Amino acid sequence: MNLFDFSWTLPVTDPTWVFFLVLIIILFAPMILGRLRIPHIIGMILAGVMIGEYGFHILDRDSSFELFGKVGLYYIMFLAGLEMDMEDFRKNRTKGIVFGCFTFLIPMLLGIWSGMSILGYGLTTSVLLASMYASHTLISYPIISRYGLSRLRSVNITIGGTVIAVTLALMILAFIGGMYKGTVDGLFWLFLLLKLAFLCFLIIFFFPRIGRWFFRKYEDSVMQFVFVLAMVFLGGGLMEFVGMEGILGAFLAGLVLNRLIPHVSPLMNRLEFVGNALFILIS
What we know:
Strand content: under 5%
CATH topology of the largest domain: Na+/H+ antiporter like fold
Radius of gyration: 21 Å
Largest sheet: none
């Protein structure tokens, strides 16, 4: 008779041990990498590679990791919009647009050229490959936020440029996807832009009004926290509904809630703590 009914096989599939291993990595990776003066985000990426199916295959990339990955990306973009200095952003929006166009066009053109001339791909395949080079996310934003640099002018310009680059890359992706589905016609761009503009109007017009009403009516901190999370993922879900990536909706939700949530407040502290301690790291 065995005192302990315990067996260990790889990859680990038991939810308890999976979550334990993830938390251990989140706890110790920054400590170890900090001694080497390497940003903890790099440690998370390296640890993920090592324990994944292309490393030691300790854990499988199942639906739970995909869920947390999407939640983490949404949360990064949401916090970027929430912590942005709106006055400075308005003054430098032209610089952000120009920066975003350059960071999109230069990798895009180089990617198309290299795909066709070096790899020998066709135009459509090269454009699709180049759109991956042209888009980027704010994966290093938690480090910027941790050091209190999120309200610098250069950071605001970078965030605005990132949104522009991601939007353009996703529109290219939607166009190529429509080509293969046979849904691209002369009105494709018109309908896509109209849907995107209408959704942006809904988020910008209704989210602040709903937020003001809720914060005035309910002062419970837990309810306010859950409400903000609901707004983030509602924005992301609506953006995916019209064929775009949900991170744009999460970013817009952060922008419109920016004035409603003081930068020095218990609610902001909770939002930053939960994101930096769990959602963003697991992503």
